[in-house]
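Interim report, section 4.2 (structural modelling).
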Amino acid sequence: MTRRRWISDYAIFIALAIECAILATATDTFLGAGNLMNVLRQNAFTAILAAGMTFVILTAGIDLSVGSVVGLSGMLCADAMARGHGVAAGVAVGLLAGIAIGAINGLIVTRVRIPAFVVTLAMMMVARGAALKYTDARTISGLPPSFGALSGNPASLTIVAAVFALSWLALMRTPFGRHVYAVGGNQDAAWLSGVRVSRVHMAVYVLCGATAGLAGVLVASRLHVGYPRAGEFSELDAIAAVVVGGTSLFGGRGSIWGTLAGVFFIGILNNGLNLFNVSPYDQMVVKGGVLLVAASLDRWRSS
Amino acid sequence: MTLLAARGLTKSYGAVTVLDRVDFDVHAGEVHALMGENGAGKSTLIKILGGAVFPDAGTVTLDGRALPAGDPLAVRRAGVNTVHQEFTLVPDMSVADNVMLGRERGLFLRGAETRREVRALIARLGVQVDPSAPVRGLSVAHQQLIEIARALAGDARVLILDEPSATLPAADVERLFAVLRRLRSEGIGIVYISHRIEEVFSLADRVTVLRDGRHVVTVEAGGLDRAQLIRWMVGRDVSEEFPARQSAAGSVVLDVRHLRAPPRFADVSFDLRAGEIVGVAGLVGAGRTSMALAVAGALPADGTLILAGSPVRFRAPEDAIARGVAYVTEDRKARGIIPLLGAGANMTLTALSAFAPHGLLLRRREAAAVQAAARRFDVRAAGLDQPAGTLSGGNQQKLLLARATMKRPAVLLLDEPTRGVDVGARAEIYALMNALTREGLAILMISSDLPEILGMSDRIVVMREGRTRGELPRAEATPERVMALATAA
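Predicted structure of the assembly:
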């Protein structure tokens, strides 16, 4: 039983190591600096989303709205800059948009007590609709050239590193993080023990919204336009990465490093399949299979 | 006549052998008590008998025919039914639908017919419940009887009951016994697991004792010596008596006046002094748990709470905890432990801010506090990272005591503090309660275990139908007087 726990706790890291070893021996290109940097940059966006999602899923919640928030916050960020308000203001607007939507999600979940799945599904539609409506589905261009640096290589990697370092600190070294695990593990017991359960729920949706806002800003920077369809289906990639990373959808179990490994496991899988010229359609099938294996491992562990 | 016969049952989980070549028989028309401490292997044995667990070795036969191992449905069809400690009722479904769940015949449901059938079954058990009422609103005692009705709904030959009395107060236990005696006279073989030794004497025909996964003895219950039975169970002499209590009641710390939260309870008044243990006796449904939850800030209520001289109003448990009122639930699994979290993290949950003066947890300080508490409360875990869900019931209970007292409260509300806890851990919990009160803590102890109420309380408050009906000092308390207050019309 303990061995099972050990295996499933470290499964994703072992899988990631094996995956890298296979690609390193099977291809000449995988270990090249150019390719590795490419992998990191391509997955920075999912990684940031998945970090916020980890908090929500640890409380046994879910946030389906993050993909749409990426689109909306990117649009608002681009619009602010296109109107000449400067990069800092644009970034701030994008982040605040994410935080605001996260706060609305959190308020509805805690006050109206509708399941998070429904609340964030509705928000997914509302936010995407708002992003499209904002310019009648047109992109916003004319962004300052310096904005592009944000998604460049030192910057985006620094942001990812900072997001994960702070997430780890919050989860493992603060009372708040302990409360996240407690609420996910047994909400009723946590409440009776004096944990402010509503605040914890509120906080995780705000955090998740913030990371989605940040991801939206980064996507706008990378595309160098505000694109209302940005981030479509990315909520599913983020959830997949969290689950592959070993966090239980039932809450209370998981780790931020598992999520990071999950992001890169899927990212490198894509990269490897590309290097082997596997078609994008087959890639989706493979990814789906990986997700099922990861979820089965979670069941196997607790059986 | 031997009905059910198990031979050489063995089961290991990893390196731990939880059941080691155990033989066990059930005769038709007998109540066979299965005794042993937590971890003795009782649960595993009945899970194998019920088909829920596949044994590593051994066989189970019913009327000489082998029962399919590890197939609960087939075992149930063959007539061996288990009522588990955790209820398996679907709260939002009606009594009738619950009883017939999994036994529906044909393509369509036949509501009227089902209800008639279920009404007859329930009548056989002597319960008055509307078959179309949802289970959610029923008392624990009634839910228990519905579980038994469900077990009987098929053609039950053997009925296995896992601690059926753990959640029941004395009067309901008597009714349960009456039901079981009737079933026994109908020729049903009953396996009865309980921690309460008294029950064995009043109900069982034979007793089997397990210890550390091994069969110790099977004897006739008549003429059995109580001390001997305990020695068999624990393998050593344990003084079953409650520890001597010297009450040194100080000043009033908590004064509860006309607390009410209808329909759960209507009018509760009592006071609680420093260093005192006040027992709250009453039947299930008397409103004792709701009253404790209201005092702990977990249930909105009207009335007055005066804490150390000043009126207080708690809107959530965190308010009560901040003012030094801690509550330990009667429902460890559902409302107590955080099963996936480590034992240590479970203990510090209420007191985390004390370990994070500047926002970040000072882990060494936390670990030191956890170790001190684990030592004092004798929480036995492989390591303090061991998930609390994997600890034994007694250790979980001690862990919850450690959690509740981590912030040094002035008032501790204990709801059924020894329910489902084995004899050894029970004695430890009593000793801890004594030690805590010596330090000035005031304890309010709700218990459905009358000997416990009488043995541990300095004063006894009796509740009936949502109201406090009387108070008895220790010297004047007898089982009869407590029960008279708890049940009088």
